[in-house]
Fold this sequence. Notes:
Helix content is 31%, strand content 24%. The chain has 489 residues and is α+β, with helices and mostly antiparallel strands. It folds into 3 domains: 4-66; 82-167, no CATH class; 186-488, Major capsid protein gp5 (Major capsid protein gp5 fold, 2-Layer Sandwich). A 7-stranded mixed β-sheet has the order 9-10-17-14-11-13-12. Helix 1 runs antiparallel to helix 2 (33-66). The two termini are 76 Å apart.
Amino acid sequence: MPSTAQLDAKGRELTQRLADFAKDFEQNEAISEDEKETAYTVLQEEFKEWSAQRQRSEGASEMASKLVGLGDAKDATTGKSVEKFEMASPFTTANRKRLAMEAVSHSDFQAVFGFEKDFRRKVDAAYELGLKDSSESGTLMGEGVYGSSTPTGVGQNPFLSGAFGPGILPDFRPGIVEQLLYKLTINDLISSFGTNAPNISYLTESLLNLNANQVAEAGTFPFSSIEVSRTYAQVGKIANALTISDEAVADAPTLYNFVQGRLLTGLQRQEEVQILAGPGYPGVGGLLSFAGSFTASSASSIYGATSYTGSSVAFPQAGTTGAGVAAQTISSLAYGRKVSGGGSYPDPLVVSLNLKDAAVDIELAVFESPTAHIMHPRDWQRLETAQDANSQFMNTSMFGNVYGVSRGPVMSLWGIPVVTTPLMPVGTILTGWFDPQTVQLARRQGVQMQMTNTNEADFIQGKITVRADERLGLLCYRPTAFQLTYLST
């Protein structure tokens, strides 16, 4: 049944609606008679329901007032009613509030709490019974209930100290505060197809010599030649496993589900590393394994770019926060261009001009504009915040905006989208035309998960081993659609 306050609010609402209805009835000729009749009927039914609820509420209040005091416990000496407690302990919320807000006599305390007759001093109930302390210990809030000593922070102890500490349960929050991992991005750039074979073969046109030309009457036709070659790609395997006890599965199902999810997370993160920098079978031959055939910087070197070979390049770099994956290291990595800074980080304007030149190199190689620059967030930060000699941001040429005016969170350079990921080492930028005509993933087997208790001594030790794996390979049809840039100090 609604409270008195709710009924009062409903009454005010109906009053206003009735007034509005009367006004519309007289002034609004656009409303038809049928519409007016329907609106009136709705209001009439709501008014009847409100009246009935109001009558029931008033009747209940009247009966309750006549029953006040009946059934209360009586003090043997004064005859005054003593409130009965629903719980054995007097420290319920209602009674603590009552004792804190009212002036309590000595006889009240004696009747309720059994104090001795020589208890004479005035009591601050909120102090003696509230018993909460807001101090902190370590990184956790501490709350205590007064015992014989001053309350202290609880720290890492889930139960409080003090007289009633063991009876105060902590608020156990559900779920697990997970470690944050950087987002996966490379996989979204590359299309995939399914295969039912462990190795894949395709033909490439290795030579195209078209000599079509004008021919005089009775002249000899020019001959053209075409050659094809077969290319092979092998499917690799990515796997992960863990062991957990029978008791953990039975007693902590939520934790067990979390562990399984983390098992799959590890698999997905290693997949991205393999797609970019995998060494080949038994893993995946990553895109950078074709770097030796990527497009090199233009012969003119109009921006001072030269080729470069990096050694022991790790993807991601050691110490990368949020990696959650084992890195893959390429012992020798061919860069199409090198931009030197002469002892410091290269001028962002020079870097941006080189990336424009790299885009043109790719366009002249495959006759399509690149679809992405992939770089570390720190490299993008330097480019995005580039300033001229007057300390003004150079947004016109680099970002296509009015000078000094930002367009928002759109990330692009010379009209080409920028993808940032900590997977790329600082100073390494990959520019490419990511298209099914240039690169694809072949998926032999999607992610599958299996578990058993018969692995080694798992059965007699009460353990379960869970494993997950997938099989895939990468095909790079046109390595010239990509170029690597190295930024050197």
